[in-house]
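Researcher: Let's try something more involved. This one mixes different molecule types, so please make sure each is placed in the same coordinate frame as the others.
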Amino acid sequence: MNVSDETLQAIIRDYNGFELSAAELELVRPEVDYYMEQLAILGDLDLSDTMSGRLLRMAAADESQARQEGGV
Amino acid sequence: MAGNELLSSTIAELAPRIRAGEVSPVELTEAALARAEEMQPRLNTFITLLGEQAMAQAREEEEAISRGEYKGPLQGIPIGLKDNLATAGIRTTLGTKVLSDYVPDEDAEVAIRCRAAGAVILGKENLEEFAAGATSNNPHFGPVRNPWGTEHIPGGSSGGGGANVAAEVTFASLGTDLGGSVRLPGAFCGVVGLKQTFGRVSQRGLLVTSFNGDHIGPMTRSVADSAILLQAMAGHDPLDPSTVPVPVPDYSAGLGRGVRGLRMGVPSNYYFEDLEPEVEEASRRAIAALEELGAISVPIELPAMKYIGAVRMAAMSDAIVTHEPFLRASRDDYGPDVLYRTLGGQFVMGHHYSKAMKAQRLIQEDYARVLQGVDFIVTPTTPLVAPRIDAAYIEHNGVTHRVRGPGSSMVSRNTSPLNATGHPAITVPCGLNSDGLPIGLQFIGAGFREDLLFQVASAYEGVSPSQGRRPPVLQG
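Model: All components are placed in one shared frame. Result:
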């Protein structure tokens, strides 16, 4: 994924962001590229069962805690 | 005992001697200040040295002890504070020209607690500008240098503290850790660095930071000293909504219990990928040493770590919000590394931030699941040893990485995940590479089980090849 300088300048202009010259935009570009890389990775993330859909193994948790408290 | 011998001691060694009147806090503080004056031109660890105040505090503590008012093992011990922790009436710069004359009205809660325990505040320590990076190459106050190799970074952002502890200037230094900023200087300077559970220590008075994932933690020369510092710092603060009202255990109680029978999670993905060969060798040797001590290795997998990069994407957004008022008022006073790293955050969109938070939750669930089956997790603290101060980029396993400024995240890849999950993590020295630079081993525990982390880290510390090693800056 890539986002153009024109789009970034439009975001700054329309959302009252921090102005950046063309040279400054180049300096910021590695952060934007990182953002876009991570967005691409998130593309395959299945969020259908996040939080409410996944149950932790509470029984095992109790067992683990008991073992820790026993100092083994 | 001569000043230099005193400075080489640990807090746990000195405390009973201070209590017995055999070691004078005044003489100890004089020795520490003399060492600070000697090291400052070489390491640049302090922004503000508090000579007179420290001596006055040391005299007060010495008199209190002579009256029988013993406060505990921190009494009369010289420590440092990172210069992003508020100190009443004392300049607190955050390492930036933007706040170079800022004098807070109040102390940070950790400063209050450490003073109440009798610690002597030696000075305010140099750091990355706004604590926003991993090098401690400060553009306004100069770079901090690593006692193990003065052409190398000490790690950041709490580099002044890490270097001071390694150079035996302070016995402990309090740093702050938003992505590894206590543990990275710990690893690169060959000292112990603790990031405790999120909510265990008050953040009140930690200035200009994100509300998500920052921690104030100690750097020390031993695990036992780390336990002593956390004992003083930990506890619910009714004025900090992020702290949790759970009891504070005796953190020193488990020291010496060893690791026999404990289940040690060894990640099969992420943490051992992309390591410098000597870092991997040292880490594998450490794991073997822990097995020799009786720990049981258990391979673990953390599949959601695939998405850990998204968490930094959210941090970009947090940073622009944190800095917005300062950027509006004083943009020209920022150094370029922090300025351009921060400004990228204005492009992160809200729904992407929310998705990153969902990914963070999945990652937290992975750790929760894994930590039901093991007692602790072991990883290398960093994928590499301390880069050179003049390095803007490093070549690592055939890939070019930025060390500082926009796009830099390689150095903190093994530490920052625990800021996202909130789990406690501690780095302990595990040897030197062939250039004599320290390597760190990280232990990760379940929430609020710092006691178990101290137990494990202390056991390993006893067999670590770093035992007894001192940095070249102390050898003439």
